[in-house]
Amino acid sequence: MTASYATYGGAYDCDVLVIGGGIIGLSTAYALTRAAPGTSVVVLEKEAGPAHHQTGRNSGVIHSGIYYRPGSLKARYAVRGAAEMVKFCAEYGLAHEVTGKLIVATDREELPRLHALVQRGRENGIPVRELGPAQIAEYEPRVRGVAAIHVGTTGVCDFGAVAAQLAEEADAAGAQIVYGEEVRAVDRRPFGVAVRTSSGRIVRARALVNCAGLHCDEVARLAGDEPAVRIVPFRGEYYELDRPELVRGLVYPVPDPAFPFLGVHLTRGIEGTVHVGPNAVPALAREGYGWSTIHPRELAATLSWPGSWRIARRHWRYGTGELYRSLSKRAFTEAVRRLLPPVAEDDLRPVAAGVRAQAVLRDGTLVDDFLIQEAPRTVHVLNAPSPAATASLPIGREVARRALAHLA
């Protein structure tokens, strides 16, 4: 850090300021300290520790990359990131397992979509095995379907632990990670950026990186930029299976390609418990982890965005089903029983929900790829939902590369 102070006469507190202490912000800090040793980095996180939101509230799946359009950032970074995530966990002794997963068609109408996934997987360089009903039973004796595919490179880990390790490594390399500091104002100057936090602290940097997740579009506007997207929060509600012996690994339905959510699935985590879910319902706040959490200002901002209403009109049938499953445990159980017939309503116990930060265009299009945009002295990460945790190491390197270019 002293190198930049000497060079710039103490005009800056750091070279790169990262807003957000989730897995993307911390991966960026980690990448910066490795790509350019001596670069001074500060991370500001409004919570008391890392990974309090999307990173720490997901099912912990290391995604293979099979779902994503060939050539997209999601496809390239997920395939690369899955291998790197396994290696990172092994290097630092973090609990993980490469389990493989089944994607199961429960009726014949889903077969064309399942076959399309096989082709997509092969285009993305992912080994895929096609299965009939008897072969499904070899992997998952209690799962029923007319056909399935097995994806061997899928795994599980604790992304919260990964984020904590990234923070530790970045800190050891000289980065300063500050918790409990929410950014309230951003002043972009000709040769740098200054931010003011909730405590009144001023941090001056040569470049700013916005990894604020659920609040990334708000931070972009604080910086004077007007992104073409808004974050529309969707809550994903989970249950835990009281009879985890019913499931050996990971079991997914065939997804609807018109919607960016994967449907209710079953995930045996590294601790041996089985999570069931999530569904996808509108959240009434950006951190709205239950129906009772309502932030009127945030809700008004969502409702005033034209894209929100266009989503509702376009996907009302899908959305109605998701809402029904949110309000009716019986309906949720029936959705699970399509994959796992032995499940009973009493087998499902509610656990913590998560919220997906989904970027939506004005015309109602759900942004289906990672979205990174630049402005003077600034890099904004504006869409990084799943599989961003899986892809966090290559995403962090790309964001770090762009931030360093602003220092040249």
Please name the defining characteristics of this protein:
408 residues, alpha+beta, nine-stranded mixed beta sheet, eight-stranded mixed beta sheet, 20 strands, 27% strand, disordered N terminus
Q: Look at the helices and sheets and give the structural class.
A: alpha+beta
* Number of H- or I-type helical stretches: 12
Mean pLDDT: 94
Distance between the amino and carboxyl termini: 17 Å
- Classify the helix fraction into a percent range: 25-40%
Radius of gyration: 21 Å
Strand percentage lies at 25-35%
Sheet of most strands: 9 strands, mixed
- Basic shape: globular
State the oligomer: single chain
According to DSSP, the number of beta strands is 20
| Poorly predicted segments | 1-9
Topology readout:
Elements: H1 2-7, E1 14-19, H2 23-35, E2 41-45, E3 61-62, H3 73-91, E4 96-98, E5 101-105, H4 111-123, E6 128-131, H5 133-139, E7 147-151, E8 155-157, H6 159-172, E9 176-179, E10 183-189, E11 192-197, E12 202-210, H7 216-222, E13 229-241, E14 250-253, E15 265-268, E16 274-277, E17 281-282, H8 296-304, H9 306-314, H10 316-327, H11 329-337, E18 348-361, E19 371-375, E20 378-383, H12 392-405
Parallel strand pairs: 1-2, 1-12, 2-9, 5-14, 12-20
Antiparallel strand pairs: 3-8, 4-8, 5-7, 6-7, 10-11, 11-12, 13-16, 13-17, 13-18, 14-15, 15-16, 19-20
Helix pairs in contact: 2-6, 2-12, 3-12, 10-11
